[in-house]
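User: Teach me something about this protein's shape.
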Amino acid sequence: MSNEEQIAYWNGEAGRKWAAKDAMMATMLAPIARDLLAHAKVQDCSRALDVGCGGGSETLMLAEHLGPGSTVLGVDISTPMLEVARQRAAADPATGHQVEFLQADAATHSFGERNFDLLFSRFGVMFFDDPAAAFSNMRTALAPGAKLAFCCWQRLPDNPWALIPLQAALEHVAPPEPPAPNAPGPFAFADPLRVRTVLEQAGLKEIAIAPHAVNMCWSNNGNLDATVRDMLNMGPVSRLLQDESDTVRQAVYHGATQAMTPWFIDGEMRLPGAVWFITATH
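Assistant: First, the predicted structure itself:
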């Protein structure tokens, strides 16, 4: 999707759906964000920019990690998600006062002379039309020597949490049109050589790319059927189903449940995944 399509998507029904499930997603993705923070060694930073902050869980995590006196600006394009973020911050007396939120497209927004010493993102930077230009724009908000740390998904075949339900769905629905090479999307940064090129073009230095294995744990009160539906309605399959009939949807849910039952352990869906941890400096 283009930037304009992304903005429409995250401010429409999809954005409201993600906002409603934000607590579940925050719990599932928190271990990845914590591991990224430990990997990036950002404890000496105090003024952070959180790109694609969503419901603000990692924005508050950043503020806690960086400690008292630090400030974090969370940026996102989604009104529904930012409503959740502001509510979450207001309910957090420990670190809520250290964060603020801005609705903007980080690819083009003029941040002025903010002089951030950290640019951080948990799966929020793979959706730019022109990623080199987007990172160039964000770099202008960074102080000299500032750090960059973000995570992105490796290839779809390396992420069974996404691949298995997608394969089950394609038994019942037509496959989507193949995306253009390097099109914005969850797996747009799967190629580490491309990521390195993008960041070099944006003027960033000391680029390091490290693989990281993850476990994606989904749960809906220990209910297998509800958990599978959550996964299909939130993950890559959701767009395939948005215009399908109830009959087709039910067939997909049934097929996916059968395919994923072996991964449902102790009331949780536990599926492996693979990400890249990317670090660089200004």
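Now, about its shape. The CA atoms of residues 108 and 137 lie 6 Å apart. The chain is about 40% helix and 25% strand. If you'd like, I can walk through any region in more detail.
User: That's plenty for now, thanks!
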